[in-house]
Amino acid sequence: MQKIIVSTENAPAAIGPYSQAVEVNGLLFLSGMLPIDPVTGDLVGGGVREQTRQIFSNIAAVLAAAGLENEQIVKTTVFLQDMSLFAEMNEVYAEQFNGSYPARSAFAAKALPKNALVEIEVIAVR
């Protein structure tokens, strides 16, 4: 097994003892991405739509660092502060893919880091 740590300054740095992403045997596992602006280190303003867009920008940056794209995402897990935010998140989420959607799970979480409204983790394949 070859384990490769993937990181980029174009996405927020990890806020704990974990990697932005780890690649093993052609699979890339991204840690949960928060709606943090990598330049300022702050949560983006606005609501769940803006936060979801920032998350996908962060995901794209980490994927690019590994030489991958959104279309290579095969599984996502979405964590929402409240399920009432699902429809708005889902609209932005759908825009990120060209009709070839990955498998997905979505959950309400009692609280997310930095009081974010949404957090998304992904698995991509080379």
3D structure, described in words:
The chain is an alpha+beta fold. The protein has one domain: RutC-like (60s Ribosomal Protein L30, Chain: A), CATH 3.30.1330. The protein is 22% helix and 29% strand. It is built from 2 helices and 6 strands; from the N terminus they run E-E-E-H-E-H-E-E. Strands 1-2-3-6-4-5 form a 6-stranded mixed sheet, with helices on one face. Helix 1 packs parallel to helix 2. It is globular, with a radius of gyration of 14 Å. The mean pLDDT is 97.
List keywords for this structure.
126 residues; 22% helix; 60s Ribosomal Protein L30, Chain: A; globular; 6-stranded mixed beta sheet; alpha+beta; 6 strands
Layout of helices and strands:
Blueprint: E1 3-6, E2 21-24, E3 27-33, H1 48-65, E4 73-80, H2 86-95, E5 103-108, E6 118-125
Helix pairs in contact: 1-2
Number of strands: 6
User: Main sheet?
Assistant: 6 strands, mixed
Count of helix runs: 2
> Shape from CA axes?
globular
Please give the CATH class.
Alpha Beta
Low-confidence stretches: none
Helix content: 10-25%
Reading the helices and strands in chain order gives EEEHEHEE
Q: Could you say what the CATH topology is called?
A: 60s Ribosomal Protein L30, Chain: A
Average pLDDT over all residues = 97
N-to-C terminal Cα separation, in Å? Answer: 15 Å
**The named CATH superfamily:** RutC-like
Overall CATH architecture: 2-Layer Sandwich
Classify the secondary structure makeup into a structural class. alpha+beta
- What's the Cα radius of gyration? 14 Å
Strand order of the largest sheet: 1-2-3-6-4-5
